[in-house]
Amino acid sequence: MTSRHISLKDLAKELNVSISTVSRALRDHPDISSEVKEKVKQLALSKNYTPNPLAMGLLKQETRMIGVIVPDLVTHFYASIISGIEQVANEMGYFILLASSNESVEKEKQAIENLLKARVEGFIICQTQETQSTEHFEALIERSIPLVFFDRICLSDRVPTVTVDNKAAAQKITQHFYQQGYRRIAFISGPDQLNITKERMAGYLEGLKQSGLPEDPELIEHCNLSFESAKQAMARLLDTANPPDAVFGINDTVAFAAMQKIKERGLKIPDNVGLVGFTDDFHAMVVDPPLTSITHPTYAIGQEAARLFFQSKDNKQYSTPVVLQTQLIIRKSSQKTCHGDHDDAETAW
Amino acid sequence: MTSRHISLKDLAKELNVSISTVSRALRDHPDISSEVKEKVKQLALSKNYTPNPLAMGLLKQETRMIGVIVPDLVTHFYASIISGIEQVANEMGYFILLASSNESVEKEKQAIENLLKARVEGFIICQTQETQSTEHFEALIERSIPLVFFDRICLSDRVPTVTVDNKAAAQKITQHFYQQGYRRIAFISGPDQLNITKERMAGYLEGLKQSGLPEDPELIEHCNLSFESAKQAMARLLDTANPPDAVFGINDTVAFAAMQKIKERGLKIPDNVGLVGFTDDFHAMVVDPPLTSITHPTYAIGQEAARLFFQSKDNKQYSTPVVLQTQLIIRKSSQKTCHGDHDDAETAW
DNA sequence: TATTATCATGCAAAGCTTTGCGCTAAGCTT
DNA sequence: AAGCTTAGCGCAAAGCTTTGCATGATAATA
């Protein structure tokens, strides 16, 4: 029940010196004699003294906490990114305060307010797919509160961002399909306002053009990134007069949903329909057939976002966007012709 | 650069009253006249005043932060539990400080120290599989720092815990296998010191007994819960003279690893080998064939752990262990005989 | 009118740390 | 020996909030 942490005051009392002497002794201030220093340090160690971060925060006006807001916590993609953020933050002596927006702008705003109340020093955010207006972000910028976006971004002229080479990756996918002999390549896309949607769409279209394939509106479907809506999108594709022989899903959830729907229809992957996802590594390997996909360097994305955060906190000046490279990992789901590869063949494009 | 948050002092100055008057006005203290109250509240609202948690923490000696330590952040199981913890914590005006032990006792200890330095008020922990000695936990108990364990527990006579009905669940699995016609039922187990290992083992054995099946040491394998080690365990099972026709994996990772190894050997699930996991719902549905499994109520586990935390913080007295119910969800991977069910048939046992 | 009750507000301390400045005593210079 | 430097340490303020107590003023009572 007694205060569980000991303070400078406690040490000072025990040593019959002033608090300031203790403080300076611990910080090796030249004013303090080496005998006193020694005594103080020893006692501090034995009593397991650690400075009270609340007091320090009050004094220095810093809390050493970063607010991190993601659409959800349970997706491996975000969890892994958060790990990356945490690693760098920890190294810098910072902690993370986590909040999930559940893809709702309202909760996103609420989270920002709550974290602000908790006095986080800034934010690292992946916005919801609903997010259209950017006022709540601009308010942060105006108050010059450090802010970093990753994956889903906006305001990128004023906010440091970290993304992946979405367009190039999507292009690789289309080309890969083409080389495998697929000719009717469909794209299950997401909400239009998201940058990832736009960029992957651009890459998809560019890939078609380069392969000399025509652009066919019937091969482009939209969904809201949920499993169910992705399944419906896949169903619509299969129900067209001239269904696709290859499908590119904008993320892992979408790809898995597509896979399930394709199987339900009794079609074979990769023979009847090729499938490629856009995801991090983990899930792609447990499904059957193993899913060819663009892999995100999720951990690195987190690390990079954290670095950008500290940069913008210290320098106060705009950092140029960071774009990380993805890799196309080719697995069974997109290999129409038998290449003689065994299960774990992984070809970096 | 100027202090980004406004304080009582700011409000007081602007209104030409004392800080204490402002404080009391905001908390509706009867001593303050209603006109002053009105003025103060209005200004506070317009200036967007929120009390500084650092100052409050210093004063009240509470930080409103809970330290949560898990073996890793990226597994859906933990991520979902963390979500549950977060929801309850948020409701109580608390924040979570997350740390991952990476299944290393050293990092677990380190995390406890770091979080203690950050002055968390207590801990919610799922210990590493390495954890043998319990000194670092007992140190917390002695300092009467609130502590709650979930899933992997120890010291349960002194620490509130939340687990699931491991034994009963394991028993159900064995019986289900038996009813499906499987007769050589194997168990891929984990490190012996873990309570989950012991309890599920007990249930497995009890289930065998009830089904009148003999206990065969050859059908019990151990692994360290990693994907690779689980695959090796599965391989060892398949290499025995009389290999199993059914396998119960102690968690999802293990089950997936087993699945992969079984497929590699060209065996069919569920016809040649039945498979059941012990996991939360998410992954079981995306693999092929869909995995029969015991589902953890992960979100509820998190919620319950958080509730227990607050209980032990306030009451200071020991709470009886919480045991949550699991469900056996039957999917394709364990249905030897064709039941005519369609894909999404789910039978609660 | 003098005294008391009541109301509204301010002062100051506590919680913990850092740091500029002031103080004391010892040692040094000339 | 008188004056000056310097080594070594303490005071106090700032950062923000709450709250017991004191203060001041006004209204009510005897």
From TrEMBL, chains A, B:
<feature type="domain" description="HTH lacI-type">
    <location>
        <begin position="6"/>
        <end position="60"/>
    </location>
</feature>
<keyword id="KW-0804">Transcription</keyword>
<dbReference type="InterPro" id="IPR000843">
    <property type="entry name" value="HTH_LacI"/>
</dbReference>
<dbReference type="Pfam" id="PF00532">
    <property type="entry name" value="Peripla_BP_1"/>
</dbReference>
<keyword id="KW-0805">Transcription regulation</keyword>
<dbReference type="InterPro" id="IPR010982">
    <property type="entry name" value="Lambda_DNA-bd_dom_sf"/>
</dbReference>
<protein>
    <submittedName>
        <fullName>Transcriptional regulator, LacI family</fullName>
    </submittedName>
</protein>
<keyword id="KW-0238">DNA-binding</keyword>
<dbReference type="Pfam" id="PF00356">
    <property type="entry name" value="LacI"/>
</dbReference>
<dbReference type="GO" id="GO:0003700">
    <property type="term" value="F:DNA-binding transcription factor activity"/>
</dbReference>
<dbReference type="InterPro" id="IPR001761">
    <property type="entry name" value="Peripla_BP/Lac1_sug-bd_dom"/>
</dbReference>
<dbReference type="InterPro" id="IPR028082">
    <property type="entry name" value="Peripla_BP_I"/>
</dbReference>
<dbReference type="GO" id="GO:0000976">
    <property type="term" value="F:transcription cis-regulatory region binding"/>
</dbReference>
